[in-house]
Design goal:
Blueprint: H1 2-14, E1 21-22, E2 30-33, E3 36-39, H2 40-59, H3 61-64, H4 71-88, H5 100-125, H6 133-154, E4 161-166, H7 170-179, E5 188-194, H8 215-221, E6 226-229, H9 241-249, E7 254-256, H10 257-265, H11 275-280, H12 288-308, H13 310-324, E8 329-335, E9 341-347, H14 372-379, H15 388-393, E10 397-399, H16 406-415, E11 428-430, H17 432-436, H18 443-459, H19 462-478
Parallel strand pairs: 4-5, 4-6, 6-7, 10-11
Antiparallel strand pairs: 1-2, 2-3, 8-9
Helix pairs in contact: 1-2, 2-4, 2-6, 4-5, 5-6, 7-10, 13-14
């Protein structure tokens, strides 16, 4: 237990030396890898488990590896395959639930089964990669043991981030909900709210802190690790600029609510967004280098998935045809980059007369227009596969905001601020909003998904695209979000 804790501390500290990582000033719970916020504990856990899997592969090498000269290559391949398999089952998106042990076992077993299958496929090309059951058993026991120890450590008071929130309005309440939502590896505790004149109170009265004491005094008294500022109106004289500066100079990090949401929820929240945040907040890299890398990624991933899923697509086409004899594909006009219109291609999942009145409709839960085959191909996202043709045409990317119909875009641009910003890049087959939020079926859903889209526009990179690709596999495996 002590060794695990020391490794967590050492890795947390040494992560700052990597150039690909940024440690935002004062923050001790996250790192930024290519501009994307990553939980420090989750990243540490990944490094720890790679080390454990490498050790398990080396220790059991005489029992499964015929060529000792391939030891390190085979061990590294084994570790990376298992980590990838665990990622696809959401084992690095930990929730702090009481059923953590049960959830870990339920996800760990199929992760190693998937890893075993992948290793067998690799062994067809590289025979030296044929791994025996011993290394999987040893690796599984080691990872499970490490997980339980790290989980126990993550619940200790040493890793709890104590937050003091300046403001007591609606945004402050949402920060409380996010901080106590039991999402992520690092636990939060909100020590209280400092009321600000002019705000309509929306937080529990029992959590209010004395407003007559200096903020630095309050932060020191309640041992706050970070101050979150949720005040919306900063021009009425009630905004404590000097006191916040004293806190920052006194060693207590001060974070704007918009930055807190971006860091912890991967969202740029519109209700706490100042226009200057988008302009001066950095990111939004649309350089030629980024565009070239993204295009290569789109073509390679689409080609690979297209070839691997060809049998599934043929079976789907046959099932659709057999069910009602109608057309297999469905073409629909969507809005792309710079609001250019294009025809998106999908497997038909609804009845042929789904919009017989000619008026577009939002999808709803248990939509009666969806066919039996359509229900399953939507749940497994198979209906999206033909859109890879749109990727090859250059109309879409593999990762990006979901393309919407022009009828809804006109309405949403009028109703939601900054909605048109999402049309600054190509739409995608999958995206951050698609893997983090349920299927959009209302204006409220569109607003929530826009907040993820804005985060992707601001912090997009090849690294984030790869993470979204892994999350997409998880969505398909667990059938999340389809309607």
């Amino acid at each position: 237990m002590g060794w695990i804790a020391r490794q967590l501390w050492w890795l947390k500290t040494s992560a700052q030396v990597f150039r690909i990582m940024e440690v935002p000033s004062g923050e001790v719970i996250v790192i930024r890898i290519f501009h994307h916020y990553v939980s420090r504990i989750a990243f540490t856990l990944l490094l720890l488990e790679v080390s454990i899997l490498l050790a398990a592969a080396v220790a059991s090498a005489p029992l499964w590896l015929s060529d000792p000269g391939q030891l390190y290559f085979a061990a590294l391949a084994f570790a990376l395959v298992i980590v990838f398999s665990m990622s696809t089952f959401g084992m690095y998106q930990h929730d702090q639930s009481r059923r953590y042990v049960r959830s870990t076992v339920l996800r760990l077993t199929p992760s190693f089964v998937l890893g075993f299958a992948v290793m067998q496929l690799l062994a067809m090309v590289l025979p030296e990669m044929r791994a025996g059951s011993v290394v999987f058993l040893l690796g599984g026991v080691a990872v499970l043991t490490a997980r339980l120890l790290v989980f126990t450590s993550a619940q200790s008071r040493m890793l709890v981030q104590r937050l003091m929130i300046v403001g007591d309005g609606a945004v402050a309440r949402e920060c409380l909900q996010l901080a106590t939502g039991r999402i992520g590896f690092h636990p939060f505790r909100v020590v209280g709210f400092v009321p600000v004149k002019g705000e309509v109170r929306a937080v529990p009265a029992g959590m209010l802190l004395p407003a007559d004491l200096p903020l630095l005094t309050l932060a020191q008294r309640y041992a706050a690790d970070e101050i979150i500022v949720t005040v919306g109106d900063r021009r009425n004289g009630a905004f404590p600029v000097r006191q916040l500066l004293e806190c920052a100079l006194g060693g207590v990090p001060v974070t704007d609510a918009a930055a807190f949401f971006e860091r912890e929820a991967c969202q740029i929240r519109l209700d706490s967004l100042q226009p200057s945040y988008l302009i001066f907040g950095g990111g939004f890299n649309q350089s030629l280098t980024r565009a070239t890398i993204k295009r290569i990624f789109d073509l390679l991933v689409s080609a690979a998935i297209g070839l691997l899923s060809l049998p599934v697509m043929l079976a789907t086409a046959l099932a659709i045809k057999v069910e009602d004899g109608g057309p297999v594909f469905y073409r629909q006009e969507r809005v792309g980059r710079d609001k250019r219109l294009f025809q998106v291609l999908k497997f038909r999942s609804m009845r042929q007369d789904a919009e017989h009145d000619g008026r577009p409709q939002w999808a709803v839960p248990d939509d009666p227009r969806v066919t039996l085959v359509g229900h399953w191909i939507r749940k497994l996202r198979i209906d999206e596969l033909p859109q890879m043709l749109n990727v090859f045409r250059g109309e879409m990317s593999f990762v990006g905001p979901r393309p919407e119909r022009a009828y809804f875009v006109e309405q949403l641009c009028d109703q939601i601020a900054y909605y048109n910003v999402r049309h600054g890049i190509k739409p995608g087959i999958t995206g951050l909003a698609q893997v983090r939020y349920r299927y959009g079926a209302s204006t409220e859903d569109a607003l929530q998904k826009l907040q993820y889209d804005l985060y992707y526009l601001k912090n997009g990179s090849l690294f984030l695209d790869l993470l979204i690709l892994v999350d997409t596999v998880q969505v398909v495996l667990f059938g999340k979000g389809g309607r």
